[in-house]
Design brief:
By secondary structure, the protein is an alpha/beta fold. The protein has a single domain, classed as NAD(P)-binding Rossmann-like Domain (Rossmann fold). The chain is built from eleven helices and eight strands. An eight-stranded mixed sheet has the order 3-2-1-4-5-6-7-8, with helices on both faces. β5, α5 and β6 form a beta-alpha-beta unit. α4 packs across α10, α5 crosses α10 and α6 packs antiparallel against α7. The mean pLDDT is 93.
């Protein structure tokens, strides 16, 4: 059976958080969640764009219930403030979509001194997830979905001893590293929390036409940015189709934690479960990544569960 948005079950009574819910995959994910009855919290760095996204969604889902909050994943202080505000307003969270991210940008640092892509895509979402854990574990069957990318296959040596790529920075290698780490984080989160009823999943949107490619071109302007942006525009699927893997992972009653949902034809098509390969499915590497994230953010699972 080809899984489509119409297969999303009734989500009335559910609370979902979508980082980057104001554009691209996040916008379409938010739209479908709201259309099926969920109250959706949009975490967005640009509140003006988030308000525009609200109007866009309300035009197609007039009864959408949306809660817009400021969130900058490149700032641990912003993540902490967002988490505190959201859990105060919504003490039970059913679904968390770690969706937002930056792609192949020039070398830079986050507010906390981390390489921009690793700090935003990985550490920001790690910190967010741990600080939302009490609210997630208050739900009956909470799910966390982390968005990865086909760029995980170009993660280079994937050197976790140098995650900030000091002295060897390459925009695409850094992006690939962050997206591979996002997938491994999902699997390790599932391993550590499934005994408490929480399941976690990876989701790959394939080649999807979003503003991420254009933003990367504007920020970096390199040959590969222009090349992949052009390929996506020619061969890519819509953002609505690209959002289906994460929507299926989060809502399909038959979904099994610790799996990856991706397009049937790798870069396009309906969402299906896909293997990740032995190069990524490395338990010892996932443990090392988790320990690294705890060390860099100063947040631990033990503290989150206390």
């Amino acid at each position: 059976m080809v899984w489509k948005a119409r297969d999303i079950p009734d989500l009335n009574g559910k609370v979902a958080i979508v980082t980057g819910g104001n554009g691209g995959l996040g916008l379409e994910t938010t739209r479908q969640l709201a259309a099926h009855g969920a109250l959706v919290v949009i975490g967005a760095r640009n509140l003006d764009k988030a308000e525009a996204a609200r109007r866009n969604i309300l035009a197609t889902v007039p009864d959408a219930r949306l809660d817009i909050r400021h969130l900058d994943l490149g700032s641990l202080a912003s993540v902490a403030a967002f988490s505190a505000e959201v859990t105060a307003a919504h003490p039970r969270i059913d679904l968390l979509f770690n969706n937002a991210g930056v792609m192949a940008v020039k070398e830079g640092k986050t507010e906390d001194g981390f390489e921009t892509q690793f700090g935003t895509n990985v550490l920001g979402h790690f910190a967010l997830t741990l600080q939302l854990l009490p609210a997630l574990l208050s739900a009956e069957r909470p799910r966390v979905v982390c968005t990865t990318s086909t760029a995980r296959f170009i993660a280079g040596s994937y050197d976790l001893s140098n995650p900030n790529m000091h002295g060897c920075y390459d925009p695409w290698d850094a992006y690939g590293l962050s997206k591979r780490a996002d997938l491994q984080f999902a699997f390790e989160l599932n391993r550590r929390l499934q005994g408490r009823g929480l399941t976690a999943y990876g989701a790959d949107p394939g080649f999807s036409k979003t503003n991420l490619q254009a933003t990367s071109v504007r920020a970096n302007g390199g040959f590969r940015q222009h090349f992949w942006s052009g390929v996506t525009q020619i061969m890519g699927q819509s953002a609505a189709m690209g959002a289906l893997p994460q929507l299926r992972a989060a809502t399909d009653p038959a979904a099994v934690g610790g799996t990856l949902y991706a397009p049937h034809w790798i870069t396009f098509g309906a969402p299906v479960v896909r293997g990740v390969g032995r190069n990524i499915d490395k338990p010892e590497q996932m443990t090392r990544l988790w320990e690294l994230c705890e060390s860099e953010t100063g947040l631990t699972l033990a503290q989150a569960l206390a």
